[in-house]
Amino acid sequence: MGAQIPESDQIKQLKEFLGTDNKLTEICFLDCVKTAQQILQECNIQQNEALAAKAGLLGQP
């Protein structure tokens, strides 16, 4: 059988893994939030343009 990894090394590896996982999760979450904000902003712009067009405000000086 293979050599066992000392418990202190196992704990160190687990901490490194959890740290990496945490960073990746944070990056993905922030990217998702940014994308959602962009989509909402685009929807708001389109809604405002549609309302302005209905009110006859677009294309007027």
UniProtKB/TrEMBL annotation:
Keyword Protein transport in record: yes
Ligase recorded as keyword: no
Keywords: Disulfide bond, Protein transport, Translocation, Transport
An annotated GO cellular component: mitochondrial inner membrane
GO BP term (any one): protein transport
UniProt-listed Gene3D superfamilies: Mitochondrial import inner membrane translocase subunit tim13 like domains (1.10.287.810)
Cellular localisation: Mitochondrion inner membrane
Primary location group: mitochondrion
Topology with respect to the bilayer: Peripheral membrane protein
Protein name (database record): Mitochondrial import inner membrane translocase subunit
